[in-house]
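Continuing from yesterday's entry. The apo prediction looked reasonable, so today I'm repeating it with pyridoxal-5'-phosphate included to see how the binding region is handled. Same sequence as before; SMILES copied from the compound registry.
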Amino acid sequence: MNKIYLDHSATTRTDEDVASAMLEYMTDNFGNPSSIHSFGRSARKPVEEAREKIAQAIGAEPNEIIFTSGGTEADNLAVRGVAYANKKRGNHIITSSIEHHAVLDSCKALEREGFQVTYLPVDEYGMVNPDDVRNALTDQTILVSVMHANNEVGTIQPIKEIGAVARENGVFFHSDTVQSIGKIPVNVNELNIDLLSVSAHKFYGPKGIGCLYMRKGVRMLPISFGGSQERKRRPGTLNVPGIIGFGLAIEKAVKSQPEQASSQALLRDKLIKELTNKIDYVKLNGHPTERLPNNVNLSFQFIEGESLLLSLDMKGIAASSGSACTSGSLDPSHVLLALGLSHEIAHGSLRLTLGKDNTEAEIDYVIQVLPEIVEKLRAMSPLYANRGKAGHQSKECCLNV
Ligand SMILES: *Cc1c(COP(=O)(O)O)cnc(C)c1O
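Holo prediction written out below.
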């Protein structure tokens, strides 16, 4: 069997049509869209057409789209840009404890500059309660930032309700929709969103390009300086090939969204059902129903997610775990801890994220191989050998599916 890629929340393979559409804008049509001459003009037109496609995909106007280098920069620009522009009105921001680090670390940076941030808790499924948002509001609140769908556990937030709370109180509302675009419907008007972050490489577009949607009337200051591109809101020569690819990728992703959501949800549910049937001491993380159609996140007690990943990799299966191994530490994910998981359970977690090219045969292979790997790893685990002893939970301890 060929290698099986189940890490689509980390990045996706660029669509062939998208990649070939981009090539022209590196070679024949290489102009800088800010130039006055014909080379500039012939790059400018397709950029503006891509902007229109992107706006249309989320129910926005083209002049509300600001191109960025991706989701991280869009999150930074939204959180910090709105904070700086509205400092005179207030210094308080509300966000959740399970945001992407691009939002969390932007908030932490603002705290060092005198802003106050409330990090709302989530329930055991990773859900933010809109009433908690309401109760956290003060006369100093200028921004609420809550992500649409979580990248680790796939929980979909009640964004529409949270947006309504913000709007009733005259507070701007930002949502990181990097994981939800192309997987569930996203419309800025239906969801009461004022600012939204997008990243093309999460839906078969190229890496290094994304945008911030900013509703007309939102006050935001730039966070970088040096040019008048994007009406001075985000300076720098436009990434023309990236923008062309982004436009085509979002158009395709939104068009195929309903069909992709139903086919991927079938595979997701098969994985969850079979793996939790075949393996003991396993727990589904995230919400049982309000969940991205492509996300499976399971915790296996008595083993380390890292060992699981290595064993799966040897079998040709690419997945992701819940600990931040990349940062050099073995701290469990802030998201899993916020859901109330113990460090031990959080360490044994595995994220499988589906994409448009995964087949049922691949899923069947994972269902066959993963229980064998778990059994092998547990056979080497002293924790597993001692599981019956005092202090350890029963077999169904952490089973909530
Ligand atoms: C991937 C991701 C980002 C970062 O996007 P980049 O384009 O890779 O910078 C931000 N938020 C969420 C929820 C993500 O999944």
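Comparison notes:
- Residues 396-401 have pLDDT under 50 and may be disordered.
- The CA atoms of residues 124 and 339 lie 5 Å apart.
Will overlay with the apo model tomorrow.
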